[in-house]
Structure formats: structure tokens, C-alpha cells
Structures
1.
Amino acid sequence: MCGIVAYFGKKEAQPILIEGLRRLEYRGYDSAGVALLKDGAFDLYKISGRIANLEGIVPEPSSPATVGIGHTRWATHGKPTTPNAHPHIDCTGKIAVVHNGIIENYAILKKWLIQEGCTFKSETDTEVVANLIGYFYEKNLSRDGQNTPQRNNRFEWAVQQALNEIHGTYGLAILCLDCPDIMIGVKNGSPLILGVGENEFIIASDTSAIIEHTSQAVYLSDGEMVCIRKDGFTTKTITDKEVQKELKEIEISLDQIELEGFDHYMQKEIAEQPQVLETCLNGRVDVKNGRVVLGGIQDQLRDLTRTKRVILAACGTAWHAGLVGEFLFEQLARIPAEVEYASEFRYRNPVIDEGALFIAISQSGETADTLAAVEQAKERGATVLGVVNVVGSTIARTTDAGVYLRVGPEIGVASTKAFTAQVAVLTMLAIELGRRRHLSADIAQALLKELTEIPKKVEHILTQNEQIKQIAQANIDKDNWLFLGRGLNYPVALEGALKLKEISYIHAEGLPAAEMKHGPIALITDEMPTVFIATQCSQYEKIIGNIEEVRARGGKTIVVATEGDEHIKQYADHLITVPDTVEQLQPLLTVVPLQMLAYHAAVLRGHDVDKPRNLAKSVTVE
Ligand code: AGP
């Protein structure tokens, strides 16, 4: 939800922090700030709005600092104002903190700290963390008056004392004025990674802010902290137990996080789909034998043959992919399946029997609601798999096993290539589970053969960019749209509506097409474009009927149809075509024009496509 970056080394910290924040800006962009530690003082710069605003107030340093922390915010507690921007410095002026997450008990702690004489300048929970650390550091006594630590560990000890009082989630980077040779990072429920370079260290919310400095990283687990000094770093739990962490190679490259000539990351990621789908399928599809090889879950697959029920849990776009998965598990593997909104599932005291397969779907692998659902499913004995994009993310490391999407970093807040890859992985999983039950080899071979054709068919759809842009242009002034589909295209209708909503700010609703006559058809006027996904499939005649119902009431129709379908042209005010494919694989194609439609609508409306208002790429708070 927010982006943290911190630098400890020999180079000038300021430009490294600013560039790192720019790479993390997609995680939140309500306000930004940096604190530089130099000559016994903090140089603190923070401002509401984008990183560009921060760059405008940070002066060229006369004597550059080589240690500093930075933050780009998605507001949770307190408005996106300058006083609420991070870093926060405690009332003694000695502790500076940047934080990603939510402190659940911040109000009671704030009340106690005020009683103890602390003062506050902001409405944030993060300032409570800074003051709590400052309190223990200053008093040098724990809350019960004991544990006066040795002086040289006093900063670390004060951090641990503060964390023991806190309930909630946090990724933290912390500095202390008296200890310029130490920087502390802590992870609990929010992402935090330590990049280890040549005599320099970078702490960040994700690897995109680290990769241009080093490809070596330490992935902290929840409840762990890292204490960085000039000669190296130590890792321990927040209860002061040493832990050994291995250095891992960061798997993304710098060019993967660059725009590479595109106007927006979303545009780049839509265009990348053919090749990243190839990568996602590569080495996993065995057409000859009609089998799927998913290395990450091979051990679990044997046991899963007897699975009695599949529960998929996700949020947003990932949930839409999960709905496709639900249909495919039932159609291909004949296993009862249901997709759950993770945010609802976790509070519903769900019935999860031992034989259940629980699949968490998450591009970022850090979505708090999905992570909580995973933890609950594990507690109740389900086998828990992850379908995740970000390697080493919290969900990826919490599940029993999983399948990575392999689509590279998805920077645009609106998820595109991750959706198609999630659907591709769920399709492969449904086929493989089906093959271990009743699905015949020849059906599986045909499906898998067609699956390998999908990337080229997506490539073909991308050539309609200009037509789709014109359709967006023709409807850009309409403030309410409908997206309708049936069967496996119903989840795609939901996804198309979400894409349009979240980046063009046009209100849109996705529905099963047949539901229109149960109420929503009352909405139809010529001011409400209706997008129909009407490819040739088992419900083709039915969807034609639904289109006629809308047109009979003066509704304008944008139709996504199968290439070469002449019959449907009479029903379409605007027509987009996709290559023919088997019904089970149609979502992989029909979603692409809707991604492009939303993209052009947002650009034509002059919005920041990659950083739409009020949103962030990774929702790491509940
Ligand atoms: C998708 O376009 C949205 N940005 C959002 O709904 C997203 O899919 C959702 O927050 C889930 O994120 P995740 O896949 O990283 O868990």
C-alpha cells in the first residue's frame, strides 16, 4: 500500500532514495518524503502529492548524506497532507521512521504516550511507532521499569521494546540520530526486502527499487528485523533471537521495470501478454501426453487427485480470474469449486474440511485480505496453494506450495498480464487435475494444443488497437457502461467493468447477460453503452437474444465477437473481433480488447493510467 526505500552506504543517499521512490510510486502516491541523516541531524523533506512534488523541495545537498529513508504514501490513517506524510520523527527528535502497514492499537498507545509526555504533529499511526521507539530509547527502561540494556544496543533494544507493544502490520525502516552507523529494518505483515550491495544496503518494499543497485537480496519473514552497520548486517527476530538468512538472486531485470518506449506501464503490459503468456506456459504444457507439469506443486498434485472441493480466494482482478478457475475446475476436473472474496471469507468462519484444496490468487503476493485467508485455510487443515507473480512475496512464502505466473513485474495499478497468466495457470491446473481423474487424454491434448496457440492469437488482437481507440473515443462522454457476458465470458465482463472503472473513473457494472431482464435492463438508454462478449460458444444464441433485448430499448452495443462472424454484425454499433478458440480458453482472448478499451478511455479522459486516483498496486492493508 505504501512504498518504503532506505539507503545505507557510501554513495549520496538522496538521489538513490528519490529514484527508488519513483520506482515504488505505483504502490501509493498521496504524499512522499525523505529523511537524510548527516552530521548529527535529520534533513527532513516531505510533501503531499507525487514524488515530483518532493523533488521540487529537496535541495541539492551541500554535504551529501549517505544514510537516509524515504516513503511514498497511500493514506490509511489521516488525510494525504504534508504533516501526515512520512518520514515521521519522534518528539525527542532522535528517531525517524517510515512505515507501510496498519498499527491496530495505535490509538491506545498514542493516549498512553501523551500521558507520558509525548507530543504529536500528525494523525498517523506511524508517528506513534516513532514516539514509542523514542520513548523507550530515551527512558532506557522497558514499560515495567526493567531491562536497562547495554548502551551499544540501546537503539535496537528500544525498537524491540516498541514492537512488543504493537499489534498490526508493518514494514519499517528506522534511523536514530545518536546511532548514525546503524539502520534498522523490520517486517511484519507488509513486504520488506534487504538489497545487499558492495558496502551498501538498500531496504525497500519490493525489488524494483533495489535491482539497479544489486541483484542480491535477503527476504525478511514476518517478525524479523535486520540491523545494518558499516561492516555488514545481522538478522534476528523482534524478540532478539538470531536468525540466519540466505542471500538470494533477484529474478527481475532493470529493463523489465523500464517503460521501454511505451507511454504507460499498462500499455506495455497489455502488449507484453503474448510473450509473457509464452513464458508462463513454457515447459509446463506437455501436449503429446495431454499433461501439465507444474514443478512448484508436483508433490501436492498426487494428494490432490482425491480433492473433494476447491476453494479459490482472491481480491479484485485476481478474483475474476478465480471465477474462471471455478468454472474450469468444475467443467474439466469435475470437482466442486467456489471462488471467495478473501475479505469476506476470512471473517465468515468458513467450513473448510481436511480434503479441501485452497488456492490463493494474487499478483503481488502481498494483499492483506488474501494473506489472511491463506493463514485461516492453513489453520483449518486445507492444502494451500498460491498462484502468485512476485517471487518471494509473503503469500508465496506462506502457502504450502504454488505456481508462479512468470510474467515479470506488473507496475501498472490496473492488472492486465497478471490476469491472463492467472487464468492460464488455473486452466493448466484444472486440466492436470482432470487428467488425474476422468478427463480423457485426447480432450486434454486438444485443449493444451490450443492453449499453446493463444499467445499468437493475443498478438493478433493487439493489431486492432486503432479501432478500439476509436470505440473508446466514440463513447468517452458516457458516464455509465454495462459489461455483459455468459458462461466463461461472465467473469470477463466483470473484469472489463473493473478495468474501465479503476482507470477512466467511468462507472461500469459487469453482469451475467441473462440477469438483465431481472432488473438492470431498466437502466438501458442510448446514453448507456453496453459491452457484450458474444463470441461463438454454447450460449451464442442466448447472448444474441440479450443483445436484441438491449437494442430494442434503444441501447447502444459494443460487441466482442468471433472473427469472421458475419451474423453478429447487425447487432453491433461497434464491433471488436477475437480469433476463434475453444470455449474454455475464450477468457484469455476476450479480456484483451476490454483491457485496451479501458486503457484508451483513461488516456482520452486525461487520467494517470498507471497511478489512478485513490488506488495503489498492492493493497497490503485490510
Ligand atoms: C486490478 O486491476 C486491481 N488493481 C486490483 O483489483 C487487484 O487485482 C487486487 O487488489 C488484487 O491484487 P493482487 O492480485 O496483488 O492480490
2.
Amino acid sequence: MRKLIAGNWKMNGLASSLAEIEALRGLTGEATCDIVVFPPLTLVEKAVERALGSAISVGAQDCHAEFAGAYTGDISAAMLAEIGARFVIVGHSERRSSYLEADCAVAAKAAAAHRAGLTSIICVGETRQQRDEGKAIEVVRAQLEGSIPDCTTSTNTAIAYEPVWAIGTGLVPSIAEIEEVHAAIRHVLEERLKRDGTLVRILYGGSVKAANAAAIFGVPNVDGALVGGASLKASEFSDIISAVA
Ligand code: 13P
């Protein structure tokens, strides 16, 4: 399976950061994987322009579940598609915790993304407490079952396993722990989508760096990465991309 390496800039980046997209272009000309960058919404359209004709796609970090309406401050998937976004992240743990987004709300956003022709990256992951209580697999399974809409296919969806305790902390689960959760995710996908479930890309996210990327990419059912902090600088992000065998 062709790996997908995604860079989530979160709420970072002013216009000057667009230079990183251009630098990334230069560094990843012959990429053997799919690359997508998620700048803040203010930069999406300009990032699309800078990435034109390259191997880099651009996405947004969230969308609303409705096509249009009285939702002050929100942005629909159709609006994102219109400015050239091809992907959207839904259900990131930072949104699940800050905005109390429930699994059904995440599924509705993913369905809206698919209707607009976008590929959704649906995020799941347990907290430290849930892992310590031995509930990681149970929590991730339940989140996934509730967060993938009926219209999910291997072409319109990727899953990102991001343990909450590994995000921005420098902590990473052991290889065995990543393997166990990714296998459980694959199992749910096969239950829901049958054969097509074997083709959905499952990304790992949480403190991915150039130093640990190759080991993580070697884990069965790890089909790429969702990178936060280490995606902000093109040089660091391209080192992670280079770790794809
Ligand atoms: P870090 O790579 O900074 O840990 O962030 C991971 C993440 O949340 C990506 O969505």
C-alpha cells in the first residue's frame, strides 16, 4: 500500500510559512508516498497554489457537517473543496476534548467531507488513563465504530491512531503497542467494509520524528503518519518522508 504522510500544522503559520510548502516541494520531488499538508484555514487556498503541480496535496483541519446554514464561524466541506482542499481531518483529539465532539458528530463531518469529494482523516486514540486501565483497545474500537460513516471507503477515508498522551509530549507507544492497536483498527475496518477494509490506510500520529519514523513505518498495518510539530519545518518533515522505504 502506498503510504500517506500527513503534516498537521494545527494553529501555526502566517503567510511567511508558505515558504515551507515551497521548500517541501524542492525536497520531495520524487516522493514514493502521498504527501498532504494541513495548514491553518487562512493559508489553505494559498498553499494549494504553492503546491500546484507537485506531489503535495493540501487539506483542512476540520469542517462542519452541514453543507451551508446559520453556523457562525464554521466552514463546510464544500467550501474547502472549492478552494482546492482535497483532505480534511475530522475528530482530532484536540477538537474532541476542546469542543466535546462526539463520535456521531465526527461521523457526520466525515460523511459531509465525502459528499464534497474530500478524503477524510478520521482520528481516534486513548488517553493515558484509559491505557493505564487496560482499556486502550476497547476505547479505540468504540471510537472508530462510532466515527466512521456508512459511506466510508478505502478511497475516501484514512484512519489516524493518535494516542492522546503521545501528542506533543515526545512519548511514543512501544512498537508492540502500536502494532496491537493498528491490528484492532484493521479488524474493525474489515468487519465494516469487508475486503475494502484491508485497503484503508491507517496512520500513526503522536510525536513522530525523523528519528523514530522508520521504525514506526515498519510496523504491520502502519500505512503512514499524521505528524504535528515535526511537520512545521520542511527539512524536518521531508526527513520523515524519506524514512518511507
Ligand atoms: P505531534 O506530532 O506534535 O505529537 O502531534 C501529533 C498530532 O496531533 C497530529 O495531528
